[in-house]
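Q: I have 1583 residues here and want to know how they pack in 3D. Can you give me a structure?
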Amino acid sequence: MAIYHLRSGFVSRSSGRSSVQSAAYITGSDLHETRRDLDVSYKNRHSDIAFTNTLAPEHAPQQFYEIGVWDLLENFEDEYAIKRFPNCLESRDKYLNSAQTAQTVVIALPRELDVGVAKELVEEFAKERFVSRGLIVTYAIHDDEGNPHAHLMISRRTAGEGGELSWAKDREIVSRKELLVTRKLWADLTNHYLEREGFSVRITEKSFADLGVNLEPTQHRGWVADKLEGMGVNSRIVHENSEIFMRNREALIEEPAVILPELTSKAATFTQMNLLKAIQKRVGDDDKVVANVFESALQQSVVVGEGMDGQIRYTTQSYKDIEEQAVNKAVELLATPFEQSKLSEDSSNKHLANHFAYFSQEQKDAVLGLTQEQSLAVLVGRAGAGKTTTLKAVSEIYQNAGFRVIGTSLSAMAAENLGQEAGIKTATLHSWLYQWERYQAASEKFLSFDNVMEEGVFKQLDWYKDLKRFESIKLNKDTVLIVDEAGMVGTRQWGELLTHVQRSGAKLIAVGDDNQFKAIEAGDFFRELKDQALQQINNQISNQTNLFNLQEIRRQQHGWMKDASQQLAELNISEGLSTYEQHGHVHQTSKANLADEIATAYLNKLKSDQSQTGLVLAFTNAQTNSINQTIRDQLKQSGLIGKKDIVNVNGKNFAMGDHIVFLKNDKIKLTITNADGVVQKGLSIKNGTQGSIVGVDNQGNIKVQLAHNYYTIISAINSFPKVAIGQPQPEPIREYNYHHISYGYAVTTYKAQGQTVDFTIVAASKHMDAKGLYVAMTRHRNDVQLFYQKEDFSTFKALTSQLSRFEHKDLVKDYTIRPENEANWQRVQEYRLCVLDAAAVAKANDWHTYHQIKQDQINLGKEILQDFNKHQLYIHQAGLTQEMLGITTGQKVRPLSIAEEKAKITVELYGETAYLARSIWNGIRKTHPGSKCYSHPSYAQFNEIRHERNSLAQTIAENYPLHREFINQFGRVYGINSKTVEAQSRQFRESQSIDKYSEKKDELWYNNKLYNNNYRKYEISKNCNTGQENQLNQGNQNKEYTIQQQQYYQQYHHQPVDHYQKSLDAKFIKQELDARIKDLAYQFLGQPNQQKATEWRYGNKGSISIHVAGHKQGLYSNFETGESGNALKLIQDQLNLDHKQAFKWGVEWLGQSHNHTLHKQRDTQRQPVPQQPTQTWQPIYPAPSHQVDISNEKSLAYMLKGRQETARYAYKDADNNILGYVVRMEDKQGNKITPTLTYCLNQEGKEQWRWQGFGNERPLYGLEQLKEKPDAKVLIVEGEKTAEAARKLFPDYSVITWSGGCGAVNKTDWTVLKNKDITIWPDNDKPGINAAVKIVDVLKVKENQTVKIVDLPPTLPHKWDLADKVPDGMDIKEILNRRPQTLTKQEHLKDLPDSLIHKGKIDQIIYQHKLDTTFGRLNNADYKHVHKVFDVLKETYRTANIKTSDDWTLKRATFMVYNLREFSSLPMKDDERARACLVAATIFANQNERTDSATTYDNHFKAVRVINTHNQSKDLYTQAENSFKEIFGFQPNAPLEVRQNSVPALQEKVLNQIKQLDLHYQQRSLEIATKALNMQKSKGMEL
């Protein structure tokens, strides 16, 4: 997890170190130090180093960007010492031996971030903090496992443009004050990257004391400590940290709640996972201690409810009290009148008429409303709706009536803007709160006798001074306080603010936009103020209205821009962006060109009118730096700013006319004057103030022009280094009294909130959400341009979808779901689950289920939209918006971009053309099959249409992501999809590359390839269906045939023979094999078990699927093994070949059978192509007993190419006769294959050994043992190697196995195991378990006998089998002899009702999904409980019409049954009852033989967490039981027998409620249908 660590130090010669040695060490490099003629090598450290680089200022020469620069810096220190101390050798030597040559910084990197992202983070930190000051930085990222960190080495001297180094060192950067800035910058940047990458964890540079955490911080342990510890020596730091860790551990054990304040500093709530991570970080890996601290801390936490992600949310009691008190104070203030008898409504109307006659009616209503007699008023104004102008009118009305009006905001810039626009005194909120607290404390203590006696008379004098000092700013009954950008204020600050307002009797006006950026601190309290004000209006609690809205956009000059801003303000992102895109204001570019295109657009705006103001808005600081530099380069080239830089501040070069931004508040160093030099009192530089450099005098003082014709001067401080007498005076060192400035062309979006400029240019980011985009796209008056990278957003749809996300800022009370809102919450939760389920099944290509889930999602979305306001909170918690629901449900059409509209037309035209071509071709084929098609009258028309179709397909394929949506939309109408586009675009490209051949000959090639119907003339006898490699070695036997084939091809096409060879390239061979997969299927597998026009199925249950026609032609899938691919994959699987061998076989096969599909006679005069006789090989038993030498058999030796034989296993019958071999071969990389070797016979009577399988009735390996040990128990293992190992481990058993793995279980003859006592030892992986279950099923079908599966210990390694080394301390025989799970057919239905799936099935599912490892084993009584739970589930789901195939059935079923508590009366413990519910729910989710559906451990542990949470929350139990008492009539503490008697009534009422709900929905649907019918009739519409 992410931790905060930053340690700063120096490289000093006094310690014997040099910067060259340090650079070599951190980067793992070989360097040479010329000063001491020393070679330094740390190559052995290079393996842990992920990235390293040297950064320098942009003006520095190339040598400063290389790691060798540190040797140059070391030499410069010697030169400096000689010049600095030319006569005093003692001082020179002292300096030479103690000089600090570099600063070092070591920082811990977040483990959550990818190493590539960490590199970006470190570079941005180094550039912004050090390189920007002119310093040189070498960094190295060490990607150590468990300890990712970075080393930075920073030069002490700055680099000049000519390669010169500064005479003076940068001492300010290492000062304590600046070190705090460095620490905070690292925390801010790290948190920014964590948020950007989607991680919720954050770090802070603050101490535990600052955070209110009563724990002791540890010291960072460096590499020396780690190295000593590896040697068995504990260093001082390790020892001290160990003591600190133990003290913190003891403190946490004693008082676990001390960890909680940290979790609620930035968020109102936290989850169990957040708490667990925080505890593990400070307690260690002691599971027992962690569990105890976790449970204790959790008990002291407050459960507030369940989030949309299914996780329980908690908070601290202190934060909950703060929020509740703040809410209560807000409610009271909303209902409390404000005394303003000296202000009348007539005077307000008169002031508006005289001074603000231009106001819209909406603004006038807002002004009159805000000046009513209420103590708290809320104004929600959209961006550009005129909030500040409205506040100016409010301020003047109150000031004219004698009230004091003051303003505040969280940022100094926003506060200053409010003060200037509204004409009132303003300060930041922190400033006001500090002054009010000081005044309140002084007023309470000044006259307190106890305080005076305790703290003394002199302290009383200080209190008196505070009273006098802050008396003028105190709040009173004549004060009106305006809070601007109120949405940025957190709950804690709102609580303090409301306390002061309520105590003083002042009036508070909160102004903000609930759809813009939220508070950084915990709590979105402005939303709560708005909701409370709205609730008072709805409930008519007060005669006064407290909530006012400004919806009409006034900022933008163009009407269509106002409409677009209105859409963005309502979070209709797709609609708003589409409007801008249709007007040409949205541009797609590449990552490489983004900065250049934005700079060009910025430059064009300035050239058109230099007086207009503009901003470029980006998401990251790195992006703003890149854009700023590119803009400056283009401005210089255009002459809009000076071509030469004239001043350097803080490492940045500035030219005359450069636009700058101030980054730090200042009231002392900088003064603001007018054009005549008169100081403007009350004005000061704020963080965010912008200006332009208009002059630099001879002393280097910089004159900056600010807005409104104001100026300020950044003063230069020139100092001269001390030199010895008689030495030349060096150039003065120039520094500035204020250096917190940067380029002001591009800023981050966060800094732009509240600003207004003439134009903006926005760089979109995939990390933006709807609020960020809304802020960015509404800052302009005249124009806005948005640029986005195609690497982030491939299409306009991807852009709008990503930027429509809503990141919710929560409150504690959000998770308290009132009874009237429970259905709304559940409906949104169901919608969210549908979204997740649809994505999961789409990934699995289960499109039937996908469409069912999408339909459920659409229905739920429509219900939500019918009353969106009641669902809005939960929709935002889910990260969704109203527009997203409208588009998903089809109630709102997704706006298309210009490119998308063209793509839609293209796809529709392609579909129509494809449909027409298909219709014409079908007509041609009916009357003119094969090569006769060319004589058909319509063939020329077909050929032309087909060419147009292929051309359109190529256009679509060139940018398929843009067309994908419309391919899906028109797919069913025209029969098109991605496969048809791919195939037909490929035809177009191939036709373009072979255009030198005649059109008719080219068409003959493709028509026969794609539309050949002559599939009834197979080369192989239907009686031969062994499915093996019966033509593997015929290539050498058919040379004469191949020559004839080539001669025929040359004669027909009038082309040289090598053209035929060239056409058989890899891509074309695969296409040809896919086109001929029907012949391959019949040759390998014979007649299909299930046959459709486009698909053939093989196997008992159709487990092998082969698509022989249609757009999926060539697709092969084996559902038993989970493998799939094309025709080449089919050849690999059937012949046990690798890819290269299968390809070679396919080339030979195509060469032999090409005449069947590729070359037909053009007329009756053409001679037929010679036919190649087909050979069929079948295994014969028994085989010869002599040993087979594979290397000397030409037909077998090719398998040994690149491999060697490592083992050979002989399959024998009961009389020890050889049946065949399984040969194990391995290559140099350890990859193994196990082909089968059998003795075969063909129809010509020829016999030979061949690589061919046993067929579909495969013999078992070890049959001879069954005869040798007729009474021995049988042990079944997987694999011959494992069987041999098991025979040595268990000599008393008959150990057998089978060939082919899990997929061949049903192809093996198991009848020989009749009446045997059988135990199965599976491999420790999923295929092994599946194979064992399949064997059980086969044996249960075959015989009525007992089969056992060994219960493998959970500590075994994954994929372990008996051939592997036995782990230390494990008794293999004890595992075999322990009581395994038994599946007996006679016990299936014994003593159990018919409605329950049999006991064997329960045991099978428990074993398969390892439920016993979560809850333990079931006993006999548990089966009845499982039965009861199962029956209730079945009835409840049937009544509620819930689909049992949904992926979330297991979770919902388990939680539903347990939470309803029908089974609390069962004589079981909580974990036992949860286990029974989980087993029953698993069975319920796995009906219809779906025992292999996904059930993960996560589901089990979620159930456990729910149980634990409920056990820890007894008060919630009491509340729930009280609700049950009201509904069902029995006491919460009733005895078990009473509760048990109440269960039937409880169950009946629950089911009745479900039925009533179902009837309600049916009735509502009927009413809607009736209304629709009446509307249609009333309008005279035909149905």
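Q: Anything worth noting?
A: The radius of gyration is 40 Å. The first helix runs from residue 19 to 27.
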